[in-house]
Amino acid sequence: MLKYRLITAFVLIPIVIAALFLLPPIGFALVTLAVCMLSAWEWGLLAGLASRRQRIWLAILCGLLLALMMLTVPAYRPFVTVWQAQYALWAALVWWLAALLLVLCYPRSATLWRDSRLLRLAFGILTILPFFWGMLALRQHHYDINHTGAWWLLYVMVLVWGSDSGAYMFGRALGRHKLAPKVSPGKTWEGLVGGLVTSAVIAWLFGKYSPLDAAPLTLLICSVVAALASVLGDLTESMFKREAGIKDSGHLIPGHGGILDRIDSLTAAVPVFACLMLLVFNAI
């Protein structure tokens, strides 16, 4: 299993970086749209849609919703300045704070949504839609100036990847105290601290050697919050998978499970980071 995970990672990471820096804006938007549609397809299983046809329709409707929202944006307007993106990013902060409460109170919190397919579908929309707009808003930001937006998006991705890797290594080596045993028994407080330390080191290195310009304190605050949000994104998907009785959201990526299994951390970290940097602090 580890062998397949490493091979897939070595193949996917260069493809992701190439997409960030080489695709034109419309091409990147279409790729992000496809990822969100696949995520919606997988979320259908978490929401209790057992029928393949129902999940296909969910993916199609999600794609149509995102495409229509994107087509209503005038060509001359940056994404971060339009209501579609702003409302989605603010909604992300509200949703992930609510998700934190759901995770902390699990399994008691599950009694509120366990039997409601509509609520679980709404949670999926609140996860996927802000992720879509966070990806586009960050990537488009001053993209015509040294690919600044692509560098910011790569920064968030590396931050999350580093946090995940640091949490895994520190957790395996030092993990003793369970972080959320009822949601994800493998995660520990030691791993969380290790992931945050790794994220802080990455934030410092990236800020020092990449063409990014932001106030160091603001960047540190937003980076730590984004790293914490990435952990929450992982825990939230684990909670929904536990309720659905499945181990992986899908099987599209060999050795890694489904699309949601790979981007669960990013679905929280990207819109939260984008909202803080672009709307709250107006830092970039």
Describe the structure.
This protein is mainly alpha-helical and 284 residues long. 75% of the residues lie in helices and 3% in strands. It has one domain. The chain is built from ten helices and two strands. It has a two-stranded antiparallel ribbon. The mean pLDDT is 88.
Key features of this structure:
284 residues; mainly alpha; 10 helices; 2 strands; 75% helix; 3% strand; Phosphatidate cytidylyltransferase; phosphatidate cytidylyltransferase activity
Question: Could you give the topology of this structure?
Answer:
Elements: H1 2-22, H2 25-46, H3 52-71, H4 83-104, H5 110-113, H6 117-140, H7 148-174, E1 178-180, E2 184-188, H8 189-209, H9 216-244, H10 259-280
Antiparallel strand pairs: 1-2
Helix pairs in contact: 2-3, 2-6, 4-6, 4-9, 4-10, 6-7, 6-10, 7-8, 7-9, 7-10, 8-9, 9-10
Task: Provide a quick synopsis of the model.
The protein has 284 residues and is mainly alpha-helical.
When the domains are counted, the total is: 1
User: How widely separated are the two ends?
Assistant: 40 Å
Approximate shape: globular
Mean pLDDT: 88
Q: Kindly provide the radius of gyration, computed on alpha-carbon positions and rounded to a whole number of angstroms.
A: 18 Å
Helices, by number, come to 10
- Beta-strand content bin: under 5%
Give the % helix: over 70%
Structural class: mainly alpha
Low-confidence stretches: none
Number of strands: 2
Largest sheet: 2 strands, antiparallel
SSE order: HHHHHHHEEHHH
Question: Strand order across the biggest sheet?
Answer: 1-2
